[in-house]
Amino acid sequence: MRDVRLNPEEQAMLSGAEGPAVQRALEIVLALGKIYGAEGLVPIESAQISGVSYKNLGDAGLEFLRQWAAEGARVHVPATLNPAGMDLSDWETLGFSKDFAEKQIAVIETFSTMGVRCTCTCTPYLVGNVPKPGAHVAWSESSAVCFANSVLGARTNREGGPSALAAAITGRTARYGYHLERNRQADYVIEVDCAVESEADFGALGYLVGRLVGAGVPYFRDLNVPDVSDLAGDPVRAIDALVAGEESGLDRLMALGAAMAASGAVALYHVEGVTPEAQPEIIRSDARVVRVSSLSEGYAALNGPLDQIDFVHIGCPHATLATLHRIADSLTGQRVRATLWITTARETKEEAQQRGYVATIENAGGKVVADTCPIVAPVAELGFQSLATNSAKTAFYAPSQLGLNVRFGPLERCIAAALTGQWRGTGRRP
User: Fold this and answer.
1) Short-list 345, 395, 400, CA closest to 206
2) Containing H/E element for 111?
3) N or C terminus of the chain: which is more exposed, having fewer CB within 10 Å?
4) Structural contact between residues 325 and 245, judged by C-beta atoms closer than 8 angstroms
5) Is 270 exposed, middle or buried (0-12, 13-18, 19+ CB in 10 A)?
6) Which residues make Cβ contacts (< 8 Å) with residue 224, sequence separation at least 6?
């Protein structure tokens, strides 16, 4: 392993001059730097911390966090949380047990003691945690990492929960991986030779490409992303429009990145004519060229053979205001037969309440669920057997993580499944 160069302030942290909590945090950052050959550390602007659900942490994880907080751990940069294991307000209505809720609330209270902003979302960029192009951050949710690197032009590796928290406490992370310009070059060119339109299409494409490139960096050519402009000039402005509820192709890029991060380990991609760094010189001279002529294989892999649907989930990554608007419009005057969850950030839900979208959805029998997602929630307690979703990431993980049979397709088909309790048609692309 390589020695990591530390400045005097970092040396003091390591020696314990700022207390045992900071010392432990720097030890974690430093250990990763040594493993990955970092020359030094780099200051970060923000952190996004995973490992929040009690379902994944258990008692050992909760005790670890409590001990760190008791030692005086406090974050020194803005930090937000990944989804928790339940809606922190409506958990009882949704059917989660009191025992689980008490432990989950204890986790959140511990993060709050450390100074973390306890908004629990996989879309921190929709709730004000928006790094500027070129900013170094330490984010850990895989889909958010992909979005930050690719769409916003920020610099982050795929942090683990403890390493992101350690980076927030020290205000720095090890300079390796995607913090280095040379590692942001594309080693695959993906020539898209088929129509890619809905968010499910982008998810199916992402599933195929992630499986192909693994942890590589793909560069997409001929991929039409509707309603997206000015990413190269001002991605933060594009996010502002998305937060305000405007229709945007950014939701398709959210689906694309989430799927690639799930089926592979993609943390950065480029889309020609769209994303900030997608210039010809970003492509390595030895990049492999791959043509995608059909999405059928992706749809087939993400669909199981079932017709009856008892659970429909939309919102992975967390739903935007525009998606909630579309769903509200499609449910007006109707009644769902299957359980319908739309997961989103709490701030997005509150804005949707102001605009009347939540009332329309709930009058139809659906639920707008904040703070969580099914993958990290104890959904097995709720007795579902089958799931329909427009998220390739959820479709990828649900069979193994939740034990559910899955149907995957566009939003409109999922809403139809919620209304009828049945999946119409085949698993092939509509």
Assistant:
1) 395
2) helix 98-113
3) N
4) yes
5) buried
6) 196
